[in-house]
Design a protein that fits this description.
5-stranded antiparallel sheet; 1 helix
Length: 78
């Protein structure tokens, strides 16, 4: 698939008490993702896999604010 990014930011140590932007991540190839991996999706980047939204940070209620948000996504694809 041409639109899929080649890499993803996988969360290494998830702690729900820390904001999304401060979680420790590691850049990994998108084909190395496993089911239940947590991924950080930064503003302006593409989501590397099908997943479920777990959290978001920095997003307001209007569409322009959501474009500047960081998202936390749980991978659901093998």
């Amino acid at each position: 698939m041409e639109l899929q990014p080649l890499s993803a930011l996988r969360v290494e140590d998830y702690d729900e008490n820390f904001p999304v932007h401060s979680l420790r991540t590691c850049e990994v190839p998108a084909f190395d993702l496993r089911v239940d991996d947590l991924l950080v999706v930064l503003p302006g980047t593409r989501i590397p896999t099908d997943g479920v939204l777990v959290g978001r940070e920095g997003a307001g209620d209007d569409a322009s604010d959501r474009l500047r948000a960081c998202f936390l996504v749980r991978n659901i694809v093998k």
